[in-house]
UniProtKB/TrEMBL annotation:
Residues 43-124 form the DUF7944 domain. NCBIfam families: MCR_0457_fam (NF047330). This is DUF7944 domain-containing protein. Transmembrane segments: none annotated. Keywords: Signal. Coiled coil: none annotated. Residues 1-26 form the signal peptide.
Length: 129
């Protein structure tokens, strides 16, 4: 439950801060839980937003090792078919066709500001727990 709650919070913050993350909401009746999960088909914008966290967060968090664990877990959840999702994202970031999407995600992160980005980054430090 903690993991799904954090996933919900984390994805909500990503959406607000980076404005490129799309999330599928599976809304149910009032007495049932609301489940927020990544879409079946992950968008390039979502992957760019996640990658940008690897650029923004190291200077905003105190515990780099914990951030790396949380970031790795998040990346693996979005790219479960990859053996090493972090490396796959890094490789994707260098592809020509991905450059404009990545630039947009970087611009959105700048617009969000350090306070909002720090909040997201701090959440990722506890995501692996």
């Amino acid at each position: 439950m903690k993991s799904s709650m954090f996933k919900s919070l984390s994805l909500g913050l990503l959406t607000t801060a980076l404005m490129t993350v799309s999330v599928t909401h599976a809304a149910t009746q009032q007495e049932e839980n609301i489940n927020v999960t990544p879409t079946q088909k992950i968008t390039q914008q979502e992957l760019a937003a996640i990658y940008v966290l690897s650029e923004v967060c190291p200077s905003l968090v105190k515990d780099d090792a914990q951030f790396e664990k949380g970031y790795s877990k998040l990346a693996q959840e979005y790219l479960p078919q990859e053996k090493d999702a972090v490396s796959a994202l890094s490789k994707l970031s260098k592809e020509k066709k991905f450059k404009s999407i990545l630039a947009e995600a970087r611009t959105d992160a700048k617009k969000a500001g350090d306070a909002k980005n720090k909040e997201i980054c701090q959440e990722l430090t506890t995501y692996s727990n």
